[in-house]
Each structure stands twice: as C-alpha cells, then as structure tokens.
Amino acid sequence: MQREQLADFLRRRREAIRPAEVGLADGPRRRTTGLRREEVAMLAGMSVDYVVRLEQGRSSQPSTQLLGALARALRFSDDERDHLFHLAGHRPPPADGVARLARAGLMRMLDLLGDTPALVLSDLGEVLAQNRAAVLLSGDLTGFSGDRRYIAYRWFTDPATRAVCPPEEQEYHARQLVADLRAAAGRRSGDPTVTGLVDRLQAASADFRRLWAEHEVAVRRADRKTFRHPRVGRLLMDCETLVTPDQRQQLLVLTPADAEARERLELLRVLGIEEFPTEATGTPVQ
C-alpha cells in the first residue's frame, strides 16, 4: 500500500471535482476548492474521520468495497479507479464487472438526470448505483449481498418482493426477468457467475424452473411498469434502458407515464426519504 501516494491522489481528485458534478449545490459560502471531506464521506457512505485519515496517509489498508465506494463518490474513470486500487495494494476489479462498480460515464449521467429516477444495473440485474430520485421511488437497492443482489433471485425467492408489484402484472414481470436473464446467459456462455445463478434459481423456485424451460429470450430496452409505493400509492412509469456497447451495464431511466404519476413523484420529492421502508420495496425497476 502506497499511503502517501494514495493520500495525495484522493486529495487532488477531491479538490478537482465541482459539487455540481456529483449533484450537490455550490452554496454561497463555499471556501474550499472542489468537494469538502464531509461531502465525500456522505457520498461514499463512510465516516469523515476515515476520509481525513486516508488523505493524511494515516489509515489502515482500505477494503475493495470501500475503494469502490470512493471511486463512485469521486466519479473516477476506469483508469483512475484502477490506479486507486493499485495505490491501496489491491488488484483492480476485472473488466467483466465482478467487482460491481458502475462506470464513471454512467454515474455522471445519473447526476445530470437530477429529479428523474435513474439506476445503473449490471446485465444480471444487480443495481450498481442509483440517484436520489430512484431511491425515493424504489428504496436503496445497492446494499444487498449474496444472490439477493440480483433482482431475479429476490423476485423468485422472496414473496415480499413480488408483493410490491400489482398481481395482474406479476406473471408478465416474471417472464421478462427470465427472458432477460436467458439473453445474458447466451452472451456469457460458460460464465460460472451466470450458470451458478441459474442453477441456484432452478433449485430454489419451481416457478423459475417453469419459465426457464420455455426458453424465452428478450433484452428489455423499453417497458412500462407500475410501482406500488407505501407512501404515495401507485405510480405508472415508463422505463427506458440504455445499454453499454459490451452489454454489461445498463442505464435505466424512469419517467411518469401519466399526470397522476407525475404528481405522486413530485409528492415523493417533497416527502423525502424519512422512514422509507427500503427493504420491502423497489423490485419493479428492471
């Protein structure tokens, strides 16, 4: 671990970023160049004290999870992210996305979308990042671990996850999830990450086995879904998906499909995220 180089790199990258680039207001009394340390801590989900120790070269070796959070918070490019991992004494995440880091360009697009809910997902349906508007709509979907990271796994193994979708849409949504996973499995033939997930889903869910056996394939790029939100009720949303050239990551943008959904989304912005039950919400996003 190259503590001094790591400290210098993080400090200089923090000072080079304007608050607007990460969705923060400049404010009339900002005296520091770039972001404040407390803003980096907030964006990365860590303590201010640890950010200070990192920048002063006094920290223990940061974990890969922490480095990934810093890379997202500071909007690192792929090259900058790899350099960060090298300085911290870790191997950079592989190109296949196993480390589950959203691409820097997609992160910048999240910031630019502002009040429009948007998420970055892997091709296996793991939410890698989401903006505040998406958290308001569907809860924080980035904190799951194990197979629960994948939306299809939660859908077929957790009744509470399916319950947030209207009953009349559940079969359609299940078919879409399976068809999309089938397309990913075809692109990544022989990938143990994909085959392992499919095997575990087949073992865990008869419903998944039924749909998987039908061999339907569909990469979803546009859709319309109903969100049953615990605070504002139903929101009908149009879903537009933009896929990276290698098809490993997607930017999902959600816009209100009617006037009622627009009003309820605006109400959500006013209510904020106080006491928002994130664990039981958010599945109909892909």
From TrEMBL:
SMART domains: HTH_XRE. It comes from the Bacteria. Residues 34-81 form the HTH cro/C1-type domain. InterPro entries: Cro/C1-type_HTH (IPR001387), Lambda_DNA-bd_dom_sf (IPR010982), MLTR_LBD (IPR041413). It holds the Pfam family HTH_31. GO terms for molecular function: DNA binding. This is XRE family transcriptional regulator. The lineage of its organism: Bacteria, Bacillati, Actinomycetota, Actinomycetes, Kitasatosporales.
